[in-house]
Every structure is written in structure tokens, then in C-alpha cells.
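Complex record, two chains
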Amino acid sequence: MTEITMPKLGESVTEGTIENWLVKVGDHVSEYDPICEVNTAKVTAEVPSVHDGVITEILVEEGKTVEVGVPIYKIEVDGGAAEPEVKEEEVETAAVKDDEPVKQNKPAVKKQSGDRRLSPVVMRLIGEHNINIDELHGTGFNGRITKKDVEKYLADGPSEQPAQKAAASTPAPEKAAPAATASVKSGESIKVSGVRKEIARRMVQSSTEIPHAWLMMEVDATNMVNLRNKHKARFKEQEGYNLTFFSFFVKAVSEVLKDYPILNSSWDDDTITVHDDINLSIAVANEDKLFVPVIKNADERSLTGIAKSISTLANKARSNKLTGDDMAGGTFTVNNTGAFGSVQSMGIINQPQVAILQVESIVRKPVFIGDMLASRHMVNLCLSIDHRVLDGLVAGQFLKAVKEKIENLDPDADSVY
Amino acid sequence: MAKLSYLDAIRDALFVAMEQDDDVFVLGEDVGKKGGVFKVTEGLQEKFGEMRVLDTPLAESNIVGTSVGAAMMGKRPVAEIQFAEYILPAVNQILNEAAKVRYRSDNDWNAPMVIRAPFGGGIHGALYHSQSIESIFVSTPGLKVVVPSTPADAKGLLMAAIKDNDPVLFFEHKKAYRLLKGEVPEGDYTIPLGKADVKREGDDITVITYGLCVNYAIQAAEQLANDGYQAEILDLRTLYPLDKEAIIKAASKTGKVLLITEDNLEGSLISEVSAIIGENCLYDLDAPIMRLAGPDVPSMPYAPPMEDYFMMNPEKIYNKMLELSEY
């Protein structure tokens, strides 16, 4: 009997959630058969078997999160006499390590999942076709995935074995997708995997579970525009990154949340937890992916510090360098929808947070000030709230406080540092 | 079409070109009465006379200098340097005069001339009869450098070189002279300069090379096919200026590139080819660019085992091809 532990699915990943068991106790599995789907902050991956054998016990139920290294199931290895308590550090190495109960006297190279480095062309093809790398079988040196392997995969589809298993055990997605109708001529079909799959899952979960309510306020941002324009050139020169409008809003939100801590909370069925830390998630799109990196302790940062964090995180997101840490711990989301020209939008809340603020485009409009008509820079702030936690009153007060902060900036007196 | 050796194809090109155009003439050491040390120009003097097939003194700078002057006055000289490494005394005439005259005179003058020279080893020629010297000339704008790999290419490229209105260096692999035989079109036959040629199609690896190595690479590719891998072979044909488009296309096709030259590795022509691929094909590469070349020792030795060690052959190419295929 061999215990199999939670594999380490990437750097900086310390735990994983068992999404789905693809096998039952008593099932006979072959080496490399998918055993379960594990979900981490970054990816959902199938964990393959490292043995031929019979599943004897499942130790972690679906939906539970366990740390890397914790046993998740037991297997009776074929040919009996398997004993070694294998510590699995990584799936990759594991496949080679505990190959057989026999001692390793031949070098454990050749074949199967050795070299996980990707050549530029393989990386490009995987990105273009949205392929889950775990479904690829490498035939190159040390099991490296070659361009030909990807081309073969694209031509033949995934190797049948894992595909059948997955289809059999997860019938769910099919009924959820009534999209393509027979009369529509279909073009390229994009396989949903990895980050896209995770985004989809969380969006569905959020919009089905949370009773969203929504309100919008129009804010006069003229003072802010003037203040920023006054400093932006010199700021860019001195600091090396942009002093964006978005930074002002993030700063204002971080300050106002102090006064309305209930918006900085999370919902967990029978408890609402109000957070001391104000960690602001910001949404960053990267072509076909959406990331929400987090500005930690935003309330402790100056405007400059916030502008710098935003710049750093956005760059990381666009170059795919965000780590799990960068994305963990958010307590409230500020979304820069104005960046792509939107003037009004309804955000879907980033669970378990309870609100999301959309900062829309700043637009010049004629506005009455007293009896005078003036040209002002106006912006809409749209707030989505979890109506289980928040009511219109507190949401309105919060939004109004943000509005006042922005409107009361003084281009002559206020500093940007 | 007649089946000719690489050497006969070159002689045929000279014959046809001299028949077509009275301005074409041949000069060099022993090219006349003796017909050249390799017999490339045999029979030319009998046919065209002493005024069009000149035996010159043993002075390469003189041979090339004479050619530059004649070419600028409207002739089309085809100079022969007996062995490629003997060209060094004439390098000033080539790089400073022939290559630059059109530019320097703002198009008023040009030098339509060809310098032929046998190069390469594998014929027990030792230090001064085995060298590859193309790398000296492949970074001088104004020059064209051509190395044919088959009899038909040798004829077509040489005729095109003679008709070209600027100086062309035409290096012939001396081991190929009698080793390679093939169908060669008769009469006037030209192949455009500056165009590489796919000599074999394949989709597993791309081999880019020139000269005799093309033939060796084709032999190695046939052997590699038994292992289930198909090699694409691109023959550069013109080393300067390089056919970048063809190089990028061939490299991108498979993403696995092997570059081969018989020259010393460092600073050789394939280093430039590698740079072109590195600059243009990063996102199409599936393996590190591999190079196979002569070792960085001063010249090809005489002792047969040491010559074999230095010289390229199908077996070395096959081994490297297999390594790249399996990468």
C-alpha cells in the first residue's frame, strides 16, 4: 500500500484543492492515468497516477484544500510488495523516482515528463491554441515537448486515454454550454483550460451565489485632472513610471474604506469577517486572460507608492510573471474599466469580497455650477455590492465619501507624494 | 542534357560564355597552355587563342589588378587563383578596388569580373591547398561570393556571375571537381545570384550549408530517413549577400536548425546565418541552433587521420542530425 501526497503544482504554490476525483476506491488505474483534478490559485491540473494499481482509499474529499505533501489517496501497487513511503515533492520527479519497487540501477532518464522546459515555438503554440500543457506528451530528449508533439496534438486531439476519463467523470460542462447552435458556421474552437477555466468557474460561482446590487455616482474629477496634469511630466521623469488617474482613485478608496470597514469584509455563509488589512485587488487584462493582483496594505501607502505598485503589478501581469503571492489576499477590488473607454459597467464581485468599484472613463461635459455652465471632467464610479452583506445606505455613503475625496483635491495645495 | 562532372560543368560555362561574348577572357597561372592545374581551362586556349586565355606570372595581386582595370574598361575577365588561399596577396585589389569602385565613383565605373578559385580540403592537400577562405570576403558590400554545390549549379551560377556587372568571387570545392556528377543543361544556362535553394524537403530538422557539404548532408539525410526523421536541406549557393528570406523560411519551418561549414567554426559564415535566425525566428525555434564546422586550428593537416578529424563527412553530419532530431 502506497500513500500518494498532494503534488506541488508550481513554484510558490503551497496548497491545492481537490476539485474532482476521477477515480473511485476499487478502480484499477495505470501509470499516468488522471486521478483527480486539483485547483490552485494559478491552475487547475490533473494529477496523474505514478503507479499501476488499485485505489484503496481516498483520504481527502472533493472541495477540500490540503497542503502540499499531505497524503490524498492510497494505492495498492500491482505486483504487491510495494512499500516505500514516497514523499512526492513534485509530480514530475515523482514519476521518475518511484518508478518501480525495484531499486534504481539504471539512470532514470529517458521518456516521460523529465524536461519541462519549453522551447519558444512550443510556448508560442501553446499560447495560440490555449493548450493545457499537461495534456501534451513529450517525445523529445528527456521527455521534452517538441514542436512536433504540439502539432501532433493539434492534429489528433488529446491522446484518447485522459480525454475519455475526463469526459466520463465530468459531465457537468456539457449541459452548462448551450451556446453553439447547429446553424452557425463555427471557426476555430478554443479549448477552455488553465486560467480561462478558472476565470469561468469563479465568475459563474460569483454571479450565481451573490445577490448583486448596483449603484453609480457621477464625480467631478476636474481638480484631480488638474492636479495630476500639473505633476505628471515631472513625476514620470523622476519616478520612471506614470502617475495615472487610477492611482488617485485607488488611494481615495483605501482611505475611505477605513471609515466604512464593512465594505472591506468577506462573506462565509454564517459569518461576515471584517478585515483589518486593506488589500486592494486591481483587475489587469492580459490578452485573453484576466488577473487580479493585489496592492497589499494600500491604506499604508502614499499616492506614489500606490502608483508604483500598480505599475509593477500591471507589468508583471502583462508579462505573465505574477506569482501566487501577488494575487493572494485581496479584500476589495478596484477595476479600471475606464481604461478601455467604458462609461458605465456592472462589475461581478471577486469572491469572497463583498464589493467591487468600477472606475469609468473621465469625460468632459458641460455642467451647471450654480447658474453658470462650465466645462468639467466628469467620471462615473460604479459600485457592485453583495446585498447579503451590504445595503444601499452604507454603499451610498461609501461612494459619496470617495466622490468627496476626489472632488476636494486641491491642485494648488495638494502634493502627489 | 549531358551528365557532367562539377569540373566539366565549369569548363562548359566558360566555353559558352566566351563564345557568347568576345569581351569575356580568362587569365591566371597555368590556365593557358597547361589548361590549369586541375584542368578546368583545358582546351580553352586552343579554341579562343592566347589573347583570350592568358598565362600570367605568379603574382595574384597582378592577376586581380589586371582584371579590375580590364573590367573597368568594359571587358569581362574571369581570373583564376590557382588555390583559394593564394588569393591573400590580391585582397587589397579585391576589397579596396573591385568591391568599392562603383560606390566610390557614384556609378560612373564598375568592375564586371569573376575570380574563380578552388578551395576546401579532403584531397590530402595539407595546409596550403585545403583552406576555406570565404569568411574573409563575406562582409564586404560590393562583392558577391558564390559557392556551387552541384554540377548544374556550378554552370548556371558561373554564367550568371560572368554576366553580372559587379565583381563576383566564385569558389569551387576542389574535392567536388571529379566527385560530383550530374545532369547539366546545355548552352546558355544561368541561375540567379543571391538565391538559396532547397535541395531536399523535410519537416523534422533544417540543415543549412553550402558547397561540398550539401552533398554530404544529402547523404546523411538519406541515412537519417531510416531513423524516421526527414531533413530539409537549404543550399545557400550565394554566401554574400545572403538570401535571408530563404534562411528565415527554412529555419522557421522546423524550428530545429543545423548549420554546417567546412571552415573553422568561429567567425565563419554560419555564425552570421545563426545570427539571422536568432534575430528573426526566436518564436519559431524548437531547439538551440546547432553548428557543425571545422575545429579552430590553423589549417587542415596532412596526416590522413588528422585530415579526417578536421574534414567534414557524411557520418559526422548524420550524428549531429540525429542529435538534433531527437532533441
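Note: Chain A has three domains: 1-102, 109-171, 211-407.
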